[in-house]
Amino acid sequence: MTVTQTTFRDAIFDGAQERPLGLSDAIGQPAGRRFDVYRNNVAVSLSEALATGFPTIAKLLGEENFNAIAGIFLRQFPPTSPMMMHYGADFPTFLESFEPLAHLGYLGDVARLELGLRRSYHAADSTGVAPETLAEIPQDKLVDITANFAPAVSVQRSSWPIHAIWAFNMQDGPKPAAVAQDVLILRPEYDPLPHVLPPGAYECVTALMAGAKLGTAAEFGTEADEGFDLGATLGLLLTGNALTSFDVPS
Amino acid sequence: MFDAQHSPDHLPNRPGVGYKPQHYTSLIENPGTVGWLEIHAENYMGDGGRPIAQLRQLSERFPISVHGVGLSIGGEGALDADHLARLKHLVDWLNPTVFSEHLAWSTHEGAFLNDLLPLPYTQDTLNRVADHIDLLQETLGRQMMLENPSSYLAFDESTWSEPDFLREVSNRTGCGLLLDVNNVFVSATNLNYDPKQYIADYPLEKVGEIHLGGHDEDEDDHGKPLLIDSHGAPVVDPVWALLDHTLSLSGPRPILIEWDTDVPEWTVLHAEALRADKALSKVMS
């Protein structure tokens, strides 16, 4: 009786399925709950990996609910590589499409924020450009420069107060108010931190990240919000080591 | 600290510990009896950040053993080429003292199950494992060590004993072996054989590293003890005794304390390393 790895895997993921034949204890009796050690190891280790990777979601749902939901997710979306640091990329979309959680519409975006923080943590190192570099660029060239971003930087737009929800659960922040929030993830050295972006900044930073010239990116910001403050946004990027260099046209 | 007496291919015959980031400062400031560190390869495959930075720092002070937990050497399918490339990248830049992996499978048809799953000891398995190890050693350009698993059940189709199977894999591929003494104790209890006989059958001359860790206790359907490898508790006395027995036959070896879940404070982990040091001193004099 050959036990294939397909049989073994299917029986691990489906607890209702019969345990594979051909597996025994020491004296030739069917393995029984000895097989369940593997069922349990796989489910617990993947569930724990998700709880570690999505601590805010785990806190919001509570341990029991989180484990039940993780148990469904990990069977539909097992890891596709041994790089557990990246496990859960499908979790935000899964949370959004999971009917019983439909009343918690913010979960998907909060999970996306946590994915962003995790990616930032493992992103390649880079050295931020010195803040005075900007001052050394000739005034008439400033509008035409483009910026290169550190790999640890990302932005996220949400119609939910995702930063406030994260801060309330992870940093004892104040109770979240029902507002939309744009978030910028920066990693000055090794610890990623999310920052709320003021109106207009998301449009400007997104344009800069896409390679737009500074002048164009600033217009995107002003179009989105008349009070957009380019100086404040550049200041945030520079102090957070978000920019690795500027390309100045000759 | 590197010891010039030891060739770069061998860990020192000292206690080592599985590295956990919460012990970084203790290890840098006062590692005590700990002479080398082991890391799980998959945790250091990111592009950068603190994990890689800490590993660089530690590798300047300690011999490093890279222990893979995700290659699925016993998998029915081909080895994951992307993962093989990631291992090569890590081994190339870090240049660790040794590299080891498990006699187990964890990936099937693109899904990674994050556990070390068991294999039937048949000729088919042997051919496949040997082919995978050949490819791995060729890719890394170095010898690897293969570790004996913890078993909770047996495959009816098996035709080899585990020590004979490991010896044959080693003979065919030239790989070294890693002997996990706690796994021997767990498997022997679960499958009702004499752990000392297993040690007697194991090709100790090929063992370049010994593992020790804690396990949990459960029962099977018939009330028989079912031990589960957990790496979340102190090493139990019968396993220390089995270590003494092993060392009396093998002579001194590098000994790793593995503690991966419910990771204790440094002093608790260091006390386990001290006990391993004591076991070593008995066979070094």
From TrEMBL, chain A:
Q: Which InterPro entries match?
A: DUF2063, DUF2063_N_sf
Q: Spell out the Pfam families in the cross-references.
A: DUF2063 (PF09836)
Q: Which residues form the Putative DNA-binding domain?
A: 4-95
Question: What is the protein named?
Answer: Putative DNA-binding domain-containing protein
Which species?
Shimia marina
TrEMBL record, chain B:
Give the Pfam families listed for this entry. Answer: MbnB_TglH_ChrH
Annotated InterPro entries = MbnB/TglH/ChrH, Xyl_isomerase-like_sf
Signal sequence bounds: none
* Source organism, top-level taxon: Bacteria
Q: Which PANTHER family does the record match to this protein?
A: UPF0276 PROTEIN HI_1600
Q: Which HAMAP family match?
A: UPF0276
Q: Which family does it belong to?
A: Belongs to the UPF0276 family.
Protein name (record) = UPF0276 protein SHM7688_02810
* Origin species: Shimia marina
